[in-house]
Write a structure and sequence with these properties.
- By secondary structure, the chain is of the alpha/beta class.
- It has one domain: P-loop containing nucleotide triphosphate hydrolases (Rossmann fold, 3-Layer(aba) Sandwich).
- It is 23% helix and 26% strand.
- It is built from five helices and twelve strands.
- The longest helix is centred in the N-terminal third of the chain and has 14 residues.
- It starts with 14 loop residues before the first strand and ends with a helix.
- The N terminus is likely disordered.
Length: 189
Amino acid sequence: MPENKINSEKPLSGSIEVVCGSMFSGKTEELINRVNGVIARKQSIKVFKPSIDIRYSSTAVVSHNQLSVPAIAVAKANDILTQADSADIIAIDEVQFFDDTIVEVCKSLAKQNKRVIAAGLDMNYKGEPFGPVPHLLAIADYITKLHAICAECGNLANFTFRKGNDETLIVLGENDKYAALCRTCYNNK
């Protein structure tokens, strides 16, 4: 059998997919689209979100344009392991809000032959790698990097700019607190 052909008799192995980008780049919408695809194929899936993210709903993952799927809110990454049980696919939104334990959780789920889809910010408002996301990117089987549109010049945006002077690392907000900016506009702030 040629090496580039998939052996359909071999059991599927787990995988880790990461969808990342700045605020307003469509990460959650992409996650929801993948979840809906899984549901349409009648595969078993569980969707998780950090319990601190209550911007739109405490019981659903909701995109900025109000698309949504039901989700289980968890306080700690390990809570995902205890609730993943028989699902073949695990989707996790706002993965940057979990501590580094989420990396081991994703690896453990993939080792159990589960498909893990994690979405989150790759950089914080300071333009620095955000929480566990860089490590997840390093171990991911698949990466999707999304871009927003710069709120100032209209070019592709990769940075999340925080409006105001709050220097707390995690501040939940929307257009009132954040803007997506390209590198040039971000560096000019």
